[in-house]
Amino acid sequence: MASTPNASSWFDQARFIPPDAIFALTAKYVADTFPQKVNLGQGTYRDANGQPWVLPSVNKAREQLLANGLNHEYLPILGLADFRNATAKLVLGSDLYSQRQSQVATCQSLSGTGSLHLAGLLLRACHGQPKVYIPSPTWSNHHQVFGSLGFPCESFKYYDPETRDLDVESYYSMLDNAEPNSIVIIHACAHNPTGCDPSKEQWKEIARRMKERQLFPLFDSAYLGFNSGNLDEDAYPIRLFIGEMEMEAGVCVSFAKNMGLYGNDDPKSPTPPGFGAKIASQVLGSEELKQMWYADMVTMSDRIRSMRKALYDHLIALETPGTWDHLIRQSGMFGFLGLSPEVVVKLREQYHVYMADNSRVSIAGLNEGNVEYVARSIAEVLKGELRS
Ligand SMILES: Cc1ncc(COP(=O)(O)O)c(C=O)c1O
Hints:
Belongs to the class-I pyridoxal-phosphate-dependent aminotransferase family. It is a single chain. By secondary structure, the protein is α/β, with parallel strands linked by helices. Helix content is 46%, strand content 10%. It contains 15 helices and eleven strands. It has helices at residues 21-31, 56-67, 81-92, 94-100, 111-127, 141-148, 168-177, 200-212, 231-234, 236-244, 275-285, 287-317, 325-329, 341-351, 371-387, and strands at residues 38-39, 132-136, 153-157, 159-160, 165-166, 183-187, 216-221, 250-253, 334-336, 353-354, 360-362. The chain has a five-stranded parallel β-sheet with strand order 3-2-6-7-8, with helices on both faces. Strands 1-10 form a two-stranded parallel sheet. α3 crosses α11. Pyridoxal-5'-phosphate binds next to α5.
């Protein structure tokens, strides 16, 4: 679309939406010529050499698809049926899926973000515009997606910077005082950005209070299996709410992280794009590929966990000021270091270590070759702060 200089434009009233800060940070990192630079900003998995990783299971699925003669016909409006059914079975587990199959409705979307948007459209069509309760902090797109659909969004305190842990009492108190028939956005696991998830006991309490208050759980499930390496473990709260508690729920699933399918083919048609769905469907439909994929998720989550531990060990060995237990309590790709914005700027400008301004780091950016450098940089900046 083009606009005419100096004339009034259709787009004059368009609201300015600032670009995502993480993409701007990545651009700065790319432009940095320092050889030891480290990017802990962007949330994409990196292997032990800091490179993108094509999962062996995904590679094999792609080879099989190509060997079988892949076509690019339109998919049905709801998406690839095998993919939708296999995803529902994966998320619910075989037993719950077979009990509830007739009550499950699925629709393919453009990854996790697209599914949140579609879920919002559906809930709006069914229920007008109820309140949407969103944890604070959260993944920034939650506010963009639900705010742009016109829902009144309300943040609730999820994280306590003092304890560097989940603030479960604030969570409970929000639930007890929430307007009935509202929506609550729930990170199914690996809370982004804090890396702090409720325990099983706390999940039970959250579910009980939500049911009592007639709140609708909308699960954002972008890290199933990627968090602990065990998909059943990571799907625990979803199965608890739907199975044991017999609640209705929405589940927005992404295979971006757990299958490493970050980029999408360009959808030029009004129907959903096929390639990623066909890959996921191929993996989920073959016992051999599924077992390979389970092993791939263990590879990714183990590497992330070992890097958390390595960062922690180096920080302790370097006698870095502060406490660092929170690093190993958190799980998933992200975590908060708990550094001030000034320290984050020094790390970036003096040490070429890039992270979000709130000191959220993507642990996947660490590897054997850079973790000590990162710890040393943090230790030096914090010791310098103490001296000044
Ligand atoms: C909490 C959360 N939800 C959803 C997504 C969805 O991502 P995508 O649209 O790439 O599948 C992400 C990705 O970063 C995320 O962190």
